Amino acid sequence: MTFQRARNEEQRAVRRRAILETTSAMLDEMPVAEVTLNELSRRVGLAKTAVLRYFESREAVLLDLMDDRTATWLAELEQELARAIDPGRSTAERAEQVADVLSRSLAAQTVLCDLYGAQGGVLEHNVSVEVVRRHKRASLGNLAVMAGLVQRHLPEIGDRAELFCLNLLLIGGALSAYTSPPPSLLAVYESEPELAVHQIELRTALRLAIITSLVGLLPRS
């Protein structure tokens, strides 16, 4: 892919979208930690200095991508919840259904979980105040959408829905670091299975975290 110099805002938007899509494709092949500006610029067909005209750093690209991927996932989650939750069930039963959907859906978003895992310690560094401001506004918007989806199917959670959703995303990010063990650790687990007793399966761990959170946040009947 080779670009001519962008001469108007529409062309700049096309360049930015190409950079984000290329980064997204890279993350389907490698973890966040391995994404570099050099490889990104090579794949997108722009010089590294040209990429930096559209995004001020690698972290700025990844923050924008995280916001985009979150919005896309929430649109899918809305449909998944609508299909799975029975409004005629009791609070406890609907909480179980919500936990099933959220754990299955978020566990399938391995790239998004990896991005959330890197957010606080990596991605929100090496970026300007303006980039962080834009990212936080997008994050708060996505969090409000997610909280609204949970409240729609579990209204008993009330205004605690946003805290629940924030905790879930942070837990998903933290757990994801442990769900793809390196070859050395896999070799240990294979040679001594008793050491693998705490090996994490993301969906199972997320479901337990969700149920535990809901028990504490939902009113007791």
TrEMBL record:
Spell out the molecular function terms from Gene Ontology.
DNA binding
Q: Which residues form the HTH tetR-type domain?
A: 13-73
DNA-binding: is it a keyword of this entry? yes
Coiled-coil segments: none
Pfam families from the entry?
A: TetR_C_34 (PF17929), TetR_N (PF00440)
Native species of this protein?
Actinoplanes auranticolor
Keyword annotations for this protein, in alphabetical order, are:
DNA-binding
Which residue spans does the record list as DNA-binding?
A: 36-55
The protein in question is named: TetR family transcriptional regulator
